[in-house]
């Protein structure tokens, strides 16, 4: 008489599923002798004489089959993966989307710490707006390639910071048209095609400490759905504000390596030399509107900025 098997069910003709010595596996019928008659689909005690190596082989085969099934599922339907050398808080991304677009926009959970890290500076720096402003969505822009370029540039600037050991990184706002946002998220901010709204401090990409400044460079897109937005919120005439009374806009909240900076001028296509007596020596990293209290920054190298967040908002 061998070990006792707790039979769970008969899987198919010639095979039983059961537990012996705490191990669950599949057992061929020639190893099993039913000692308690009854419905074969119900659990029963069976006497079994199975060599230990056969039990191990059966279990190994079952585990291998499960692994193969999991791999098949992964290859067919699960394309999400973590990308190397990216921030740890980034979400896994669909490889197909990243391969096609170059990036993924991940919506932030409203009320999360990361959400407030974006929204609070946005509202705080809307300093000269009398309209009602409401953030409707915030996305984290995850572009593995552009992030790599940005971090490499940051390390380069740290080594070149003349002992300060930092790259003077700032979070700044950038306003642009909605049509340009996909290209910016995919390819980064290209100084060659920026500046159509002005080149006061140089022919580069412009960023601002205040969201209210960047707001002037977004496009006004009027909603056409006449449904109510927030019942009870007063509107211009009807006593109830509707969607058609509000405009939508989008703005970027970017990491910018401002580094060492100087006052800009309209003729600049790159930052001037730090030492006027050595025009071929080290250059400044960016240009600003005011040395003592800069509010506007201009960069001329696309790798010096990473558009980390996309803010969608409405205003009236």
From TrEMBL:
Matching CDD domains: TCCD_inducible_PARP_like (cd01439)
EC main group: transferase
Alphabetic keyword roster: Glycosyltransferase, NAD, SH3 domain, Transferase
Record-annotated SH3 domain positions: 1-37
SUPFAM superfamilies noted in UniProt: ADP-ribosylation (SSF56399), SH3-domain (SSF50044)
UniProt-annotated stretches for the region Disordered: 222-241
PROSITE patterns reported for this sequence: PARP_CATALYTIC, SH3
GO cellular component terms given for this protein: nucleus
Start and end residues of each PARP catalytic domain: 91-316
EC number of the protein: 2.4.2.-
Record's protein name: Poly [ADP-ribose] polymerase
């Amino acid at each position: 008489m061998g070990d006792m098997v707790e039979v769970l069910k008969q899987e198919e003709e010639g095979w039983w599923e059961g537990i012996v010595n705490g191990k669950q596996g599949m057992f061929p019928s020639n190893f099993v002798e039913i000692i308690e008659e009854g419905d074969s689909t119900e659990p029963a005690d069976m006497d079994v004489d199975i060599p230990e190596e056969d039990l191990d082989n059966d279990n190994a085969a079952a585990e291998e089959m499960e692994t193969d099934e999991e791999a098949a599922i992964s290859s067919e339907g699960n394309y999400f993966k973590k990308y190397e050398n990216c921030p740890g808080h980034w979400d896994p991304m669909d490889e197909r989307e990243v391969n096609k677009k170059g990036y993924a926009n991940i919506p932030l959970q409203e009320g999360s710490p990361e959400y407030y890290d974006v929204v609070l500076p946005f509202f705080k720096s809307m300093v000269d707006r009398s309209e009602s402003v409401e953030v409707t969505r915030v996305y984290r822009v995850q572009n593995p390639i552009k992030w790599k370029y940005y971090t490499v540039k940051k390390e380069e600037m740290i080594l070149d910071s003349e002992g300060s050991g930092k790259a003077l990184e700032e979070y700044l706002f950038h306003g642009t048209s909605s049509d340009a946002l996909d290209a910016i998220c995919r390819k980064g901010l290209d100084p060659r095609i920026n500046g159509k709204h002005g080149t006061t401090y140089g022919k580069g990409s412009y960023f601002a400490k205040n969201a209210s400044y960047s707001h002037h460079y977004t496009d006004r897109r009027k909603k056409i759905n006449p449904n109510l937005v927030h019942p009870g919120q007063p509107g211009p005439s009807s006593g109830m504000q509707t969607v058609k009374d509000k405009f939508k806009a989008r703005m970027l909240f970017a990491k910018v390596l401002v580094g060492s900076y100087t006052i800009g001028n309209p003729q600049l296509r790159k930052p001037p030399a730090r030492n006027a007596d050595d025009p071929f020596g080290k250059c400044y990293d960016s240009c600003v509107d005011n040395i003592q209290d800069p509010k506007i920054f201009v960069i001329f190298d696309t790798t010096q900025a990473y558009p980390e967040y996309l803010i969608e908002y409405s205003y009236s």
